[in-house]
Amino acid sequence: MTKQERATRTRQALIRSAAVVFEQHGYAQARLVLISSGAGVSTGALHFHFENKAAVAEAVVAEASRGLRDMSTTIRRRTDTALQALVDTSHALVERLRGDPVSRAGFRLSCDGERAAAPDLRMEWHHRVRELLDEAAAAGTLADDITREDAAAATVAVTAGFEVLGRHDAEWLSPYRLTGFWQLLLPRLATPETLVRVDPSGTATVPPARGPALAGLVVGEADVPAETTAVAAEAN
């Protein structure tokens, strides 16, 4: 493995560890030593990749944002209709919020008042929902008496609400809950011809979150030059 590959693995391990620490302790109480130890590296190795805690938080949000975009693009490419892509993407998002700490921490860090960080993942999600609804309208699959903005607002409000409620009770992030929502909304949202072709429980396999194999990964301090680790450790 090259030094660049080891550095990339270390950075990803730090992001994943940081997500877990931010989720467990909140941004204010999160300590860099907990993040570095969770990734199996020294605080010097952490400072080689990130200047401070704010930079780590920004990296977590950016990783969650990248995952959301990649997931949505992948699902749309393999889905026949925009409405089914919307349903499938919402299920994939909820699955990530249930199983991927980076996605959970990314949403929390970018949206909560404790430490709002760009980008705003809920706004990104709203934008993607609106894009798919616009595409569905252009294809003539939306009912005439419902506005796209109302439909987007309802979708984002419910999924964002599930994200908040799911922090304390994972049952809110179950496929059953989201399927129930789509069973309520789709008859109002889709034309009769389209409704019979859209599965409210979703059809797509959820794309894996980035770097799942890094969970619990122990990365040695050899990933960074020894003198860099030493200097950074002293500075900390």
TrEMBL record:
The keyword Metal-binding does not apply. Residues 31-50 bind DNA. Keywords: DNA-binding, Transcription, Transcription regulation. It comes from the Bacteria. InterPro entries: ArpA-like (IPR047923), CprB_TetR_C (IPR054126), Homeodomain-like_sf (IPR009057), HTH-type_TetR-like_transc_reg (IPR050109), HTH_TetR (IPR001647), Tet_transcr_reg_TetR-rel_C_sf (IPR036271). Pfam families: TetR_C_45 (PF21935), TetR_N (PF00440). Residues 8-68 form the HTH tetR-type domain. This is ScbR family autoregulator-binding transcription factor.
